[in-house]
Design goal:
The structure is a homodimer of 186-residue chains. With 186 residues, the first copy, chain A, is mainly α. The first copy, chain A, folds into two domains: 50 residues, Orthogonal Bundle (Arc Repressor Mutant, subunit A), CATH 1.10.10.60; 124 residues, Tetracycline Repressor, domain 2, CATH 1.10.357. The first copy, chain A, is built from nine helices and no strands. Chains A and B meet through helix 6, helix 7, helix 8 and helix 9 of A and helix 6, helix 7, helix 8 and helix 9 of B.
Amino acid sequence: MPANRSEQSRRAILDAAISMIGELGYDNISIEAIARQAGVSKQTIYRWWPSKGAVILEAATESLGTVVAIPDTGDIVADIRSQLTGILELITTTGFGPAYRCLIAAGQSDPDLLRALFDQIIEPNIEDFGARAALAQQRGEMRVDADWQTLRDLLYGVVEYRLFHSMSLEPEYIDGILEIVFHGVR
Amino acid sequence: MPANRSEQSRRAILDAAISMIGELGYDNISIEAIARQAGVSKQTIYRWWPSKGAVILEAATESLGTVVAIPDTGDIVADIRSQLTGILELITTTGFGPAYRCLIAAGQSDPDLLRALFDQIIEPNIEDFGARAALAQQRGEMRVDADWQTLRDLLYGVVEYRLFHSMSLEPEYIDGILEIVFHGVR
C-alpha cells in the first residue's frame, strides 16, 4: 500500500534527522546522509521538503508532539509545571534538545528558517498558552490584568537560556521559576 | 610609542570585528578580512587571539562595557530597569546584538567558545547581580528567601529569547517583565 509505504519513509526520514543531528550537529549532516540513514533516495526527501532545515524543523516539531500541550486540571501552576517538566525531559533525554539548539543556531543567519520555526513551534504555543491563561484568569488563579504574553516569554525564555548556555536543566528548577512568576520576589 | 600603537591596533581590530559581524555574519568573516578592515596584519591578530571566535567574543565583551553594570540608587526595580534598558539599547542599535547572536549560534557547536562566553559575559553578571540582590534583600526590597539566581536567569533569559527569535525588544517591554517577577501574576 503506497500510502503506508510513504508514511513509513516519512517516519524513517524524520527519525534519521533527529538522531543524526544530536550526534553530528547541523553543519555536518546533509540531505544525502539523512537519506542514506533512512534507506530512501535523496529525491524522496526533496519531494517533501525544500531544504535540510525544513526536514530537521519538522523532525523537531513532531518530536515535541503532545508534550507541548498544556493540560487543564484546574490548577494552573500544576499544569504549567507538568508541561515544563515534559519539555525539560524531552530536551535532556532525546534528540530534540540538540536539534532545537542547532535550529536556533542556524536560524540566526537564516531568517526563513527562524520564521518557519516561529510559525511551527512558537506560534501554536502562544495560542495554547493564551487559551489556558484565559481560563486561569476567569477562575481567579491569575490576576485578570496579568500580562500572560510576557509570562509565557519568561517561562520559555529561561528554559532556552539555560539550554543555549549549556546550563543544567533539573526538573526541580521549574519550582523556582514558578515561585517567582506567580508570587514575585517582593 | 609602541604601547599606544598597539592599543590603537587592538581597538581597530575589535571595532572591525564588531562592525563586520553585524553586516556579514559569523560564517562570512575571516581573521584575514578583519585584519584588512583594521589595517593590520593577520599575524598581529593571531599574536593576541587564538581564533576568530575569541576576537569576536572580546569585541562583544568590550562593547558591553559598563552598560552591564547594575547601578545602586537604593531602588532595585529602577536599577534593574536602568540596566536592562541599556542592554536593550545596545542590542538594538549597535553591532553588539548581531555579534552576540552569532557567538551564541557558533557556540552551540563549539563548547570552548560557549564556555569562554560564559566566563567572560555571564559569570561576571552573576556576581554583579548577586551583590546587588544581597543589598536589596538586606534593605527589604526583595524577600530574603527569594532565589536571585533564578530571578537573574528569568530577566536575561527573556531578553535573549526575544533576541534569538527576532521578536521586538521595546524598552516598555521591560516594565512588563519587572511587574511579573517582582509582584507575580497571582
